[in-house]
Amino acid sequence: MNETIKTLKERRSIRSFKPDMPAKADIDAVIDAGLYAANGRGKQAVITIAVTDKEIRDKIAESNRMIGGWGEGFDPFYGAPVILIVLADKSCPTGIYDGSLVMGNLMNAAYSLGLGSIWIHRAKEEFETDEYKALLRSLGIEGEWEGIGHCALGYPAADTPVPAPRKDGRVYYI
Question: Helices 3-10 and 95-112, interaxial angle, to 10°?
Answer without folding.
Answer: 100
